[in-house]
Amino acid sequence: RVLFRSVLAGQLRVTQAEGGRTFEYRAGDFIIEMVDAWHYGVNTGDTTVRLLVIDQVSRGQQNTVIER
To answer: Furthest-apart CA pair in the chain: how many Å?
Structure first.
């Protein structure tokens, strides 16, 4: 499973839930998403964050798990 993101607009901070490691992204940046690690993103700018999302997963495989 491979998950790619491209930031089209805005500023985004992604934080790993375990350990608190953070990554800062802005328009033009390319992201290879963390897999099998809880993480969350926060808009750190004044404009809406827009992402181009490309998920490559095997048939029948889930690409997103939401913690509740």
So the answer is: 38
Terminal CA-CA length for the chain: 23
Query: Is pTM beyond 0.85 here?
Result: no
CA angle 43, 49, 50 (to 5 degrees): 155
Residue 64 has a CB neighbour count (10 Å cut-off) of 7
Tokens representing 32? 């290879």
Element (H, E) at 8: strand 2-9
Query: Which pLDDT tens digit goes with each residue over 15-65?
Result: 999 999 999 999 999 988 877 888 999 999 999 999 998 888 778 877 777
